Amino acid sequence: MYHAIVRSIIRTAFRTLSQGKNADLNRILQLFSSKAMFSFSGDHALGGQRQGTTDIRKWFERFQRIFPAIHFKVDRILVSGWPWNTLVTTFFTVQAPLPDGWTYQNEGLQVLRICWGKITEDHLFEDTSRLQDALSCLEKHGLQEAGMPPL
């Protein structure tokens, strides 16, 4: 039963993020412990590692500005462990329209560690070549933040 509840929470979080610029970040951030570690693979505007909900919020705010109409589809969620040490692996696909008429599409993997209902670690992995192409397109069309270094 516990694992089903965790899967439901993860699906709801991805549905919330799929609201793009209208997503309620507080709903997402309340899932994190105050000292959580968050990382996104790659050396680009969304890449890098940050710690604590203040820095994680800054990442999500940038994410919303870069991809205001993003959509996630959760393909599979694997949950193991107990409430004091839960490991969650989520396989997802993502797409977002780009200003040149192309649609950014990618596959991703998220690995979470949850302790007593709070995310303590969140690691995101996508094909960074596809993501970099999308970020370059956005920058060429005037979204300078898409070409900035990681926060």
TrEMBL record:
Coiled coil: none annotated. This is SnoaL-like domain-containing protein. Pfam families: SnoaL_2 (PF12680). InterPro entries: NTF2-like_dom_sf (IPR032710), SnoaL-like (IPR037401). It comes from Deinococcus cellulosilyticus (strain DSM 18568 / NBRC 106333 / KACC 11606 / 5516J-15). Residues 22-121 form the SnoaL-like domain. SUPFAM superfamilies: NTF2-like. It comes from the Bacteria.
